[in-house]
Design goal:
This protein is mainly beta. The chain has 4 helices and 29 strands. It is 8% helix and 44% strand.
């Protein structure tokens, strides 16, 4: 009996062991693996990079913009620095009435938490085809990058928007590339900055920035001449001292622009103030007779070094119903690129007159009374905008800005003493030429945008730009075929229109 019992127990144990072994060999359904996990630490659109604690957001946009009486990507005709888009409307065979910009951009936003706070790396670059610079009939394009920065422990280093900038005029309220402020949002700015958070939305920043973006030039008027294009004032010329072979005559990158900024960000919006200093020292003197032989020569000596400055204040308010209202005001002396885009001024033309403008940080020269010091140019600008939200799909904005450029009496003397460089015909002065370089301009406009679905912008913008010309009065402006001769320097104005479709594929 005991033997039978032992045999039965042994057989049962064997069967259990065999069954266990067979079960181990059978396929078992694995638990699902979550390869992409949402990262909610930094807002919508972020995902964890698999196997890491690092979060990534990929984004970008595709933009198609049609422009009438404009070119260069949101720049009114005549309000650009040279090129066909800035040409007078004298001959249809060389000037586009209508232009396109087609642009695509991709961005990566990478963030992770460290013992020092958030470590962030941001990159954005793309390519565009913009007529008339690149013909739409070919495959030419212009690559660009406007953001590539690292943020860590309060530092921002790389290419970002300048810390001097305050008001989001471009993009938020208008499609144009505005000339009524010096904002770097469109191009970016090389910088090295540190920001302190004081709490309750208050912060302060110190930024060391590459001056190239905002350098309008410190000009030796004896070198470049006045409008510096073979000594001929004509509708083809860019009317800028920077167009001369020997200009500009400022030193290179000797010191960064030093920017300080303080601001407060709250639920109602933001307000801030900025200040900057900018090296505007001149290079070596030249005389009109020595330019061809030696140009700017160390043996001629140079004027004393000068520093320019700029101050700005701005705010944006979030109103009931989603509306927005904001403003910005800026004044600068010897640092004009902080208050207006330094490429703002070229010319406007009509069939019987030409409007002239000229912008530089400062001027100097050897003149009949001896060597001059660097004389700083003063600029002030003001702009404002309002946006009304009709409903979730429709919005309309109204915007406008004004810029005034003032050359002091000593700068005017330098300019007038070198007026031989602006002869429209060899050996002759302009008839009745009024040597008055001060000028101003303004722009006003409205934009209506339709969002049929989220992240798709379809909009139409109308804008009027008016220039109160420098040197207003009678003048002989030479024939430069197919451009006719012009006998009057006068104020000019132009209407422009912009149609945009933009698909944003970031949350």
């Amino acid at each position: 009996m005991k033997m039978v019992k032992s045999l039965l127990l042994g057989t049962a144990a064997g069967l259990v062991a065999v069954a266990g072994a067979q079960a181990a060999d059978m396929p078992v359904k694995a638990a699902p693996v979550q390869y992409v996990k949402i990262c909610s630490l930094y807002g919508d659109g972020f995902y964890y990079i698999p196997g890491t604690d690092t979060c990534l957001k990929m984004g970008g946009y595709v933009r198609v913009q049609g422009e009438y009486n404009a070119g260069g990507g949101g720049v009114a005709v005549g309000n650009n620095a040279g090129g066909e888009a800035a040409q007078a409307r004298f001959a249809r065979d060389v000037t586009n009435d209508f232009n396109y910009r087609v642009r695509g951009a991709i961005s990566w936003d990478v963030r992770e938490q460290t013992e020092y706070g958030t470590l962030r790396t941001y990159i954005r670059f793309g390519a565009e085809n913009t007529t008339p610079a690149q013909t739409g009939g070919g495959t030419t394009f212009n690559p660009f990058w406007d953001r590539a920065f690292i943020q860590f422990a309060g530092f921002t280093v790389g290419r970002s928007r300048s810390f001097f900038d305050l008001f989001d005029y471009f993009g938020t309220y208008t499609y144009t590339n505005p000339r009524v402020d010096g904002d770097t949002n469109e191009t970016g700015q090389n910088l090295w900055a540190y920001t302190v958070q004081f709490g309750n939305g208050f912060s302060g920043s110190l930024s060391l920035e590459d001056p190239a973006v905002r350098k309008a030039g410190t000009i030796d008027a004896a070198v470049a001449g006045f409008f510096a294009a073979n000594g001929v004032v004509s509708p083809d010329n860019a009317f800028s001292l920077n167009g001369g072979a020997a200009a500009p005559t400022a030193f290179g990158f000797r010191m960064p622009d030093i920017v300080v900024n303080g601001r407060v960000d709250q639920a109602w919006g933001f307000a801030g103030v900025s200040a900057a200093i900018h090296d505007v020292s001149g290079a070596y003197y030249s005389t009109a007779t020595s330019v061809a032989a030696q140009g700017n020569n160390v043996n001629n000596g140079h004027p004393a070094d000068k520093i320019g400055w700029a101050v700005a204040a701005g705010a944006n308010f979030n109103l009931p119903g989603g509306d927005n209202f904001g403003f910005n005001a800026c004044v600068a002396e010897g640092a004009v690129g902080f208050c207006t885009n330094q490429n703002a001024y070229s010319f406007y033309n009509a069939s019987t007159s030409v409007g002239l403008t000229w912008l530089s940080d400062a001027v100097f020269a050897i003149n009949p009374r001896g060597a001059s010091e660097v004389e700083l140019t003063r600029v002030w600008s003001a702009l404002t905008a309002y946006q009304h939200i009709w409903n979730p799909r429709w919005r309309t904005s109204f915007f406008g800005g004004y810029v005034a450029v003032d050359y002091n009496d000593r700068a005017r003397d330098i300019i007038c003493a070198n007026r031989a460089n602006i002869t429209p015909l060899a050996g002759a002065q302009p008839v009745g030429f009024n040597c008055a370089p001060n000028h101003s301009f303004y722009e006003i406009g409205t934009r209506t945008q339709f969002n049929p679905v989220a992240q798709l912008d379809i909009g139409l913008e109308l804008m009027y730009t008016h220039v109160n010309t420098a040197f207003k009065g009678p003048a002989n402006v030479a024939v430069n075929l197919p451009r006719p001769a012009v006998t009057l320097i006068d104020d000019q104005g132009v209407w422009s229109a912009f149609m945009r479709w933009q698909r944003n594929f970031y949350p």
